[in-house]
Amino acid sequence: MSETKTRSRPSGKAEPGEPAFDLPPMGSIIGYKLRRAQLAVFQDFLNAFARMKLRPAEFSVLALIAERPGQKQTEIAEKLGIKRANFVALMDGLERRGLAERQKAMGDKRSHALRLTVEGSAFVKRMLAVWNEHENGLIEKLGGPAERDRLIVLLDRLLARSGE
Amino acid sequence: MSETKTRSRPSGKAEPGEPAFDLPPMGSIIGYKLRRAQLAVFQDFLNAFARMKLRPAEFSVLALIAERPGQKQTEIAEKLGIKRANFVALMDGLERRGLAERQKAMGDKRSHALRLTVEGSAFVKRMLAVWNEHENGLIEKLGGPAERDRLIVLLDRLLARSGE
DNA sequence: TATTGTTATACTCTATAACTATA
DNA sequence: TATAGTTATAGAGTATAACAATA
Predict the structure, then answer these.
(1) Please, what is the Cα angle at A95 between B7 and A78, to 5 degrees?
(2) Cα angle B98-A30-A1, degrees, rounded to a multiple of 5
(3) Count of C-beta atoms within a 10 Å radius of residue B162
(4) pTM for this one?
(5) Which of A16, A134, B1, B151 stands 20 to 30 A from B103 (CA)?
(6) Whether B19 contacts chain A with CB within 8 A
(7) At B102, phi and psi to the nearest 5?
(8) With a 7 Å cutoff on the CB, does B82 touch strand C?
(9) CB under 8 Å to A50, separation ≥6 — which residues?
């Protein structure tokens, strides 16, 4: 299907001395720019949360537990695209810091119901305040909430039917 | 500066039984969606280049050498955000496969001028053909070249003045 | 038999310090 | 003194296999 949508230049013949390749400008490559932007955003996140010593994965785990307490490890790990084996050390860290805990579930004795501790709830409140500042900074860079929404729509298109 | 642009819901009081947090919907978090989209695009890249055994970093190094032969390692590494120490093994791999080579530079005897081999030039031609298919697939997903351009513009805004 | 959490392990990426040979 | 390339090393992140307890 389809002709070359990738090139912008009319494909003229290479001049002498020039390389014989019709190359993408690098700054227009979707995957490349996506990666650089993601790294920049994560770096901004790490700067914002340096004082709280919180990494993106820990943020999202705490957010999911806060949103719906009692979920089991596999559920949260799957939602975040984390292998359950790698989730163990992550959860160990949150438990060691006294922010979240594993409780024995009512029905299934194999699984753990994950909950925030009292200290963890206070932590999450501060975490969300910091996150709001961080996120609003990104939204301003993008040009406002409408531009943010446009970005999300485009990224969702890249994610659609990728795993199906 | 500025009020909360992050929330979409009117911040009503929490109902009994609901968690006491006003949480972001996770799917609307810029960094989170950015990361998932980047992983999906890279996975698509890896699938496309599985047969050629080429990873994104190797692709971009070959593309930069092809674009302007004779550049030295530090130049290319910096353009790609790779530490020069980590660039060594990457370049070793390309050299071992006979795709690119280190030549002694004319002026500075410390530096290496990087060039494609004859075999490497042929490889890059095939590489660019595969890449065009991959990239056009992404552009179709986005809804066409205009949507791709809009995405690049938004990602550039996230990258602007981040490191200054 | 299948699933939950776990351990052990390995591989990739990334980051830093220190060395050498040149400049 | 500083720079280009290199080595060694350590830390994240991620992937798989296998096990015990439970379903």
Answers:
(1) 60
(2) 85
(3) 14
(4) 0.91
(5) A16
(6) yes
(7) -95, 125
(8) yes
(9) none
- List, for residues A81-127, the tens digit of each pLDDT value: 999 999 999 999 999 999 999 999 889 999 999 999 999 999 999 99
Residues in chain A: 164
Phi/psi of residue B116, each to 5°? -80, 145
Query: Which residues 55-74 of chain A have a CB within 8 Å of chain B?
Result: 56, 60, 63-64, 66-69
Tokens of B163: 């490191």
Residues in chain A within 8 Å Cβ distance of B5: 136, 139, 144-145
What gap in Å lies between CA B132 and CA B138, rounded to an integer? 10
By CA distance, what is A57's nearest residue in B? B32
CA distances (Å), origin A62, targets A74, A163, B17, B67: 15, 26, 18, 46
